[in-house]
């Protein structure tokens, strides 16, 4: 494992919600970071078939363009009744013909697909959010950190916090969706709690333990 010996990195993302969450996680650690969107880097085509492949594509593109280490996230909602869909295509389900993304439309697609499968009871609507962080260096070296959180798909959507599919994901053991939780509740461990809750916070916890701690 390669340790990160700089506090200056690039957040390899053009997704405003994802950039905000990663900034909230790395901020307390004293990082100076700019996003690929701020630096006006071209958004690479995510042609991978796994979260790891797509995370690497984004991180390596930003690392090579900036000459700095870059941290990317590839994440998605994996639903058992839909054979793992939308999975790595989670963002694609939200795409409109004009290239914009509409996550209300995406959530409705998920609900329609579950209805087609007759998945109406909570035990039939299980799934997980997956996040894979990739830390890449300009020389091509990469490190990966995977976090997952189990839960069920709720309907109708609840809450306006977070972004993406958060309003329909109810983590296991909770009565609220991610859309009803504050950032602090989702990140958990940043407040000194024993365990990260969200998939991204769990992946980030591994990143800190592996690449930052002595």
Helix-strand pattern: EHEHEHEEEHH
Largest beta sheet: strand ordering: 2-1-3-4-5-6
The count of strands amounts to 6
Q: Please, what is the average pLDDT?
A: 92
CA radius of gyration: 17 Å
CATH class: Alpha Beta
Structural class: alpha/beta
In CATH terms, what is the architecture? Alpha-Beta Complex
Here the CATH topology equals Maf protein
The largest sheet, given as strand count, sense and whether it forms a barrel, is: 6 strands, mixed
Contiguous runs where pLDDT drops below 50 for at least 5 residues: none
Strand percentage: 15-25%
Q: Give the count of structural domains.
A: 1
Describe this structure in words.
- By secondary structure, this protein is of the alpha/beta class.
- The protein has one domain (8-211): Maf protein (Alpha-Beta Complex).
- The chain is built from 5 helices and 6 strands.
- It has helices at 16-26, 51-66, 103-116, 183-187, 199-212; strands at 8-11, 32-35, 70-79, 126-136, 142-153, 169-171.
- Strand 4 (126-136) and strand 5 (142-153) form a beta hairpin.
- The chain starts with 7 loop residues before the first strand and ends with a helix.
- The model has no long low-confidence stretch (mean pLDDT 92).
- Keywords: Hydrolase, Magnesium, Metal-binding, Nucleotide metabolism, Nucleotide-binding.
- Substrate binds at residues 13-18, 75, 163-166, 186, 199-200.
- This is dITP/XTP pyrophosphatase.
